[in-house]
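Much of what follows relies on a compact textual record of a protein's fold. Here is one such record, which you should read through line by line:
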Amino acid sequence: MKQRFNIEDALKQFHRAEYEGWLVTIEVLAGLVVHDLVEAGLLLERMQEDGFIKASGRGFDLTEPGRRYALQVVRAHRMFETWLARKTGTDAAEWHRMAEKAEHLLSEKEIEEMAESLGQPRFDPHGDPIPTRHLTLPDMGESALMEVTENTVVQITHIEDEPASVFRQIISQGLAPGVVLRVRKVSTREVELEAESRIRRLDPVAARQIQVIPALDEEIRPEWSRLSDLKEGAEATIVALSAVCRGAERMRLLDLGVVPGSRVKVDLTGPFQSPRGYRIRGTLVGLRHAQAENIFVMEDAAS
């Protein structure tokens, strides 16, 4: 069982290397999977015997059977993370760890049932494309956030979830796949971003974990406010939910009537500002500050 798990973990790394364009060597495999050069050598021998990899120059490449096996494991991992994000209240920092275990245990039938229940999603919650049931994977044409020219508008497509400490730093800044942002400044010390009416700063290590694609200037909406910024008595129209708001939390807000076009009024503010009472579609709803932060509105001019 352990050997099969190691092979599947190694195949994921081979897939990642092939997708991102770097070389897998015995040293790389030892660092990423088994943490021992002797074990890495034995693992590579077994994978060659099974026909999953072949020697190529200084390193190793996937064979076609190895590539298909790798994509099966990747599909299981990303589908399970998507299920956790959409169907449970599991903390985002736990998705990857739990999927690392589930990917080895889910049957093909269970994965397909999960995919059907989710509507055959194309991307996982980190923005990674999920291999299709036919084990195909598109080329996203992404670039790293650190490579983006200053004053460029981009959309986040992927956030690498390892190491976990860096991933936590990124999500704590209110960043997620789907968020449109303007890169204000890039330096060797930090990257400054304007993301959904907030200024965010990341260190270069974190910025290298984020993949983006070009977006239009029109997708930056300076006229939008966050519901959390409105003063007591102010009225507005809900225009969108942030891409950061996902899963059970997003479903709860939608159930409460937090949908584009709904009218909202800040009706009651407590001594600690959280939660606050908002009148939405005639019903008084209590929302925490963190929930109101993820709701975008157009405030009435007279408010």
